[in-house]
């Protein structure tokens, strides 16, 4: 186990959340054993920095980004930290994932038994029991699968989300990491599109984690702000032609309609036009 721990960096991205309050960090703290300290890279996108205390069994590197450059920049920076320290694996986490304290042993076992695989993921479930990741990815959007086949799966049928992905550092950089122009929404799908060009398969472990999905936010202001990132992500993601653009346009437009109906506010359609369709026209 110590050999695997020595080869691992855990990247946690937080925003406007104290590290101690992050469910992902709380899960990591529970993983600490009596052996090699865990290497933790915390990327904080909050406006103000926070003081990071000392934790037994954890070696924490803290990086504050008041510009809120997004999760893609965060994971690229964390992966660069891992490569600098000659670590072989990175475990990507957001701030809202609850992981079992035994999950590192599960990763280690899966890696040892599947040396040809460079991407390993657990199953993420929402509070309502639906499978959140890996999801079925069709027409440029994710759908909840009814069930999953454990073990090796093709990335052209399923797509995991960011949190919980264990990725080989070598493979990460061989596909040029994350697209930093896609700051939040679509960041994971963009990474997987890049990744599967070189590495067609990934491994789904027989391990479940609980995910708090931010789309469950009910306030209008939160959804309005999030939808701007959604539009910008869809606009900036790499596209292979007109058909790709048309699919993303359909996804964003339908989401704008759903949010308009939910909140009885026209702002979502305005954001669709100003941040996706005609972004240059919205600038002074």
UniProtKB/TrEMBL annotation:
InterPro entries: Glyco_trans_2-like, Nucleotide-diphossugar_trans. It comes from the Bacteria. One of its GO terms (molecular function) is glycosyltransferase activity. Keywords: Glycosyltransferase, Transferase. Pfam families: Glycos_transf_2. The keyword Membrane does not apply. Residues 9-101 form the Glycosyltransferase 2-like domain. The keyword Electron transport does not apply. Belongs to the glycosyltransferase 2 family. This is Glycosyltransferase. It comes from Pelagihabitans pacificus. The lineage of its organism: Bacteria, Pseudomonadati, Bacteroidota, Flavobacteriia, Flavobacteriales.
């Amino acid at each position: 186990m110590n050999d695997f721990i020595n080869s691992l960096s855990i990247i946690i991205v937080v925003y406007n959340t104290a590290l101690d309050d992050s469910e992902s960090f709380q899960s990591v703290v529970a993983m600490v054993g009596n052996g090699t300290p865990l290497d933790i890279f915390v990327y904080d996108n909050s406006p103000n920095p926070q003081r990071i205390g000392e934790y037994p069994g954890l070696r924490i590197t803290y990086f504050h980004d008041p510009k809120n450059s997004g999760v893609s920049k965060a994971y690229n920076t964390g992966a660069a930290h891992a490569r600098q320290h000659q670590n072989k694996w990175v475990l990507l986490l957001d701030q809202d994932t609850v992981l079992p304290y035994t999950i590192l042993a599960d990763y280690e076992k899966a890696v040892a038994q599947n040396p040809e695989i460079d991407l390993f993921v657990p199953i993420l479930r929402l509070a309502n029991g639906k499978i959140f990741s890996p999801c079925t990815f069709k027409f440029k959007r994710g759908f909840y699968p009814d069930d999953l086949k454990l073990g090796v799966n093709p990335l052209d049928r399923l797509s995991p989300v960011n949190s919980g992905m264990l990725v080989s550092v070598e493979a990460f950089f061989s596909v040029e990491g994350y697209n930093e122009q896609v700051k939040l929404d679509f960041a994971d799908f963009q990474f997987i599109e890049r990744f599967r060009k070189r590495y067609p398969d990934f491994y789904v472990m027989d391990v479940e984690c609980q995910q708090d999905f931010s789309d469950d936010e009910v306030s209008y202001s939160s959804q309005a702000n999030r939808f701007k990132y959604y539009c910008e992500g869809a606009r900036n993601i790499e596209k292979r032609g007109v058909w790709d653009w048309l699919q993303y346009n359909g996804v964003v437009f339908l989401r704008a309609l759903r949010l308009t109906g939910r909140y009885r506010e026209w702002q979502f359609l305005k954001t669709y036009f100003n941040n996706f369709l005609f972004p240059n026209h919205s600038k002074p």
